From TrEMBL, chains A, B, C, D:
GO terms for biological process: L-lyxose metabolic process; rhamnose catabolic process. Residues 368-388 are annotated as: Disordered. The keyword Isomerase applies. It comes from Prauserella isguenensis. This is L-rhamnose isomerase/sugar isomerase. GO terms for molecular function: L-rhamnose isomerase activity; metal ion binding. PANTHER family: L-RHAMNOSE ISOMERASE.
Length: 388, 388, 388, 388
């Protein structure tokens, strides 16, 4: 098994983008509970993200959601971020909250509404120029609730056309990543339900169109790490949206529901070169903190990814290949499990300290009194949320 | 196979309670779309429900959700309903939208909040006295999102105690029905996740505590009609919440996603005496109309139940038992399928007309111009919704 | 809505291939029950398939499974089939029952075993030349049971190489169809788990490599008709394996578990041109009759497909498009449901009679005494089965 | 957090019963692969089980499956076991492999076949008297494949009657445990599909009838530890059948697919008193080793249970309750995760050595040459299997 010292170079490179919306209130269709200290503005969300990075060294960029994070001056927002020690990252388009999008956006049968949705993406590209972001991430809420409601095929063709129009506007250094989702908010069909559809759509666009894999967007029982392997093999894995789930798209803290699955995913990332220096894969969180505090929720999340990455990096690949070659099923499985069961928390804590970070970022945050101060300072205004 | 004339007595008895909240706006955590003509008040919701009954003869009662349907004078609300041709029915308690309930209601570890939730149910009982309602329906959003968050066992015990306190207050003619739900809004565990738990809880209370079966609240692949059979066999099936789903608790129009499942459920209801005159089983809808018009959505729903009930009543039980007894699998299945495949729409239309109802209630509603008038009249105010 | 007379040309063209193995005994890992009259030889299986075609006019070809249907003289077997009124169809390879394939076949890490599996496919191609079959269908049992057991990526690359070697040997008029399956008999991962993987593999081969969609090989909740639409759109839908399921790959009679899903699938087939005269899509059954009689089980199956095809052909596409264009969700759904609920059995019976077929093939078979005669004649020998 | 020394008393008491059938060949409906050295007789299976106990100290008893383990002299078989250091444990009835049981056993509509199945259980009780076993475990393969095939209700009533007849014959020190299973080998319905049905049936029998929970017998997404908690709370958890699964009833090595789930289950066992000295809960494995060697497969399994038990015992309950009481979701979850992430392997190894056991039983077995000797010795005869 590799020693911990063998893996720190890779760990030091690890970067996990935080979603600005994780710091706002979220919930279910039944209730969105609020939390004292929740940010009211994009600037406050970025400040919270910067706090996570300050304590962990793991989260150097923040993703924006447009129009949730609309501001007048994106260059100023970028400077605000840099002053706090982070950069602005992926721009996420949102074409699901305008009444016009009730029956679709990029797939809508009405050309006027499709153009409105395309224009919304053009605005995202403009923002990317201002912020220096390279990735435009598209998750569509498009779909139908009832069989017959619309033509599945016509929607797919319209989607292809809309995406092509957006893709043409990309600058050479920019990428489009297309997320897929099994269901919700549409219940009969979603227009990009699986990796196969996302791949078919982005392959038709060009080399800078890639697939975004959200770990919670699959049917029960799906082997997610297989998809990770396949997309890496095909050169089309653009980014991860990390979170975890027990049932549906629960958007729980990554690693909370099935830590072993997270380990297996990261094992395939390592095996497929996804952590190499020249890797095209970006890692980000896409989570909700419905009942827990948000900043420590995000700290916990990036630590979970870091801990599982460390374990995945500790897999003894030589021993693994030897056991695999001899079809010793139990031995091969044991090599993998040895890494998974290794408690890396102590070594990670020491390594963090050696880099000027708190050994235990969760405790450091709890003891800092920061959460209490935020609750005291952030009174009045409207707490950020999804505005559903 | 029975003739249509043989089943009309039973069909004439059929009553499907409508949920007041189906007429308000609903949606997902991503967006609640609005519809012109949506009611602003409990009175307008009841008027819409009465319209459904007027056109179908199937929906003589309306269920209320407290506090969504809070009014000053429930007796007056009941008179309003009766003037429109319907009665007030089941009272549904809601202990999931107050900030105090963030970590539970009847299961909360804080006795003060448990009492608050119990008091909310006492208020429901008071309303039942004013409205003449007999059923108190309890669906709990209680649960946890993360392993370890709370003690599963302690919550179960607290639930038992809270329910017992509520049950004691029931008048002799009143019933408590406890709904179960697989997941959502809690994602790690819900405190009443399955029929076994609901049965265990209501059995501990007494004879007037029964189980409510919502057809969308099960794990993938669950044989729902088996549960219907079992609860009828055990004498504990209190009521149905009808809806349909493809994936999770989609709350789509009943019969829309899997009409054959609805048929099988109603076949078990018939076989188990659930449609008999002295049956204790009540039928109601619990649906969302996120994108379709609400009044015709409810008309479609009660018609779907009626059509499938008619088919279920057409099963040739003598032929079925004969084929079953001889283990002729294909013949037995064919007897069931013969009833399922019988197109009852023509005979139902004629029968409706014979009773002074429109032959095609969907068309009658569409041609009446009622929806347009509502959209014109109901301007201003705040459209009803879940207020999540 | 189209009249029945409008759709009979298409119905007359319908051909559903029968699997020879459906006539042998099958079961579960717990028990394979036998049935009197079960065939002992490939010739007897073909005779049973011919009986299904004789009574339904729907099943002009029979698929073989090699080595289950190994004979000395395939040309003679083909003549035997033609004498009985049917033709030999798809050749299915079987590389999962030799001890050598314990850890894989086309994906095995040992080149010798991969070559053995490739050779098995070469033999299938030889048989195709003798029988005149055009389709080689590959379903792989390959996969692993435990994380770490083998490299997912290396197996995928070996699969690509093996398939390429087989594909090179295809004659110009022959096709390779690659089936995918979610799980079973491998439990951790299967090497072709989803349509995306099958598509990626066949796309790398060439135009005559296509995807086979088995309706039971998906995760719970998967929208199968969406995949049908997508594969038709991408020009890569080669064939269907029809069956139905409640939970896993139950291999029940097609249309038995969810007739509405079968309707929706056939609606997408119609919409995507899959029933057009020049369609490249082939239709076959892949089922087990564990407890019911096999010949009537197959008759029931092809009738189910025919009945649902008729309903799908009755969809009023003009009305559907009109409702879709105006976003009238309920009206669009109703157009689809109108076709689904139309009882086509009477008109189909009359049309069958007009073509010299029994009006009710199930009854005709039951009354023919054929099953009893088979049970009397086929004594001794070893009943055909999977030999697991 | 408790120290390791605090938990060794409980660990020393841990006993996990091994299933004799785990040492025979098993597989899927597609293929049963063989392994050199597989036992040919019940005596050899017991010898293999004794080897597992010898190396781990965890498996003092062996469960038998009747008729798979039928012998002439059960008292002699018991002596054979004791000489090897183990005892005979639970007797598992098998009423699913006789042709008579094609349509059911204890639920069959034919009283003659029901009596045959009841008699089979009486024989199991006779064997229990000879072996000194206290538990009769009933898992039924009964169910139907097609809607309408039989009356769900009548089968349930017949099951109740059959079970009552068997229960009456129990000696005062004997127990009946009834296992439930979601699906397979029946696909439309199983007669004991869920814990609610099992509980309803055993509750009608008496105090010595309990529920058996097989960890693989649930729908996707089911919170199994909740059921553990509930059955413990209701005093009806009789025994566990441990295994793991990714999709269906995969019967993989316990802890292999979702180690965190196993931890959560054992946490509820600890919390509910299931490991207390007077606990009524018995623990056993029910697994298949389709492709891996069986003896080390069983060693790995009991070690997995031991390791997760140790982690569950290390949960700091005081800290957990404190965090729960203050609704600090992240802190409460962290207390649980701290125990889960603690690498107990080193301390367990040292503790094993202190008790005269090998530090690493897997390595000890591999290095012993035992497997090779078995392969050399056990030639000829028929390897044990399910005989499906």
């Amino acid at each position: 098994m590799p020693r911990f010292a063998d893996i720190t170079d890779t760990l030091a490179r690890q970067a996990i983008e935080l979603p600005s919306w994780a710091f706002g209130n979220s919930g279910t269709r039944f209730k969105v509970f609020s939390t004292p200290g929740t940010p009211r503005t994009p600037e406050e969300k970025i400040a919270d993200a910067a706090k996570v990075h300050e304590l962990t060294g793991l989260a150097p960029t923040v993703a924006l959601h447009i129009p949730w994070d609309t501001v007048d001056d994106y260059a100023a927002l970028g400077r605000h971020a840099r002053e706090l020690g982070v950069e602005l990252g992926t721009i996420n388009s949102n074409t699901f909250q305008d009444e016009d999008y009730k029956f679709g956006s990029l797939t809508h049968s009405d050309a006027r509404i499709r153009q409105k949705a395309i224009d919304a993406h053009f605005r995202c590209l403009d923002i990317m120029h201002a912020t220096g972001s390279t990735d435009l991430k598209i998750w569509l809420a498009d779909g139908t609730n009832y069989p017959g409601q619309d033509s599945l095929r016509a929607r797919q063709d319209r989607l292809a056309e809309s995406l092509a129009t957006i893709y043409e506007r990309l600058a050479p250094h920019q990428r489009l990543v297309l997320e897929y989702k099994f269901f919700e908010p549409a219940f009969y069909h979603t227009d990009v339900p699986d990796w196969g559809t996302s791949l078919a759509q982005v392959s038709a666009l060009g080399d800078r169109a890639l697939v975004c894999l959200d770990t919670g967007h699959h049917a029960p029982g799906t082997n997610v790490e297989f998809i990770v392997m396949q997309l890496l093999r095909l050169g089309r894995l653009g980014s991860f949206d990390f979170n975890s789930r027990f049932y549906a798209d629960d958007d729980l803290i990554v690693g909370a529901a099935d830590p072993f699955q997270l380990f297996r995913i990261l094992h395939e990332v390592v095996a497929g070169g996804g952590l190499a220096e020249d890797s095209a894969v970006r890692f980000m969180l896409d989570q909700c903190h419905n009942i827990e505090d948000k900043i420590p929720g995000q700290i916990r999340s990036v630590l979970n990814v870091q801990e599982m990455t460390a374990r995945a990096l500790l897999v003894d690949h030589a021993a693994l290949e030897k056991a695999q070659a001899s079809h010793d099923v139990l031995a091969a499985n044991e090599v993998l499990m040895d890494a998974f069961q290794t408690d890396v928390r102590g070594e990670l804590a020491a390594w963090r300290e050696s880099r000027g970070l708190p050994a235990d970022p969760m405790r450091a945050y709890a003891e800092s009194g920061h959460q209490r101060r935020l609750a005291e300072q952030r009174v009045g205004g409207t707490q950020a949320g999804w505005g559903a």
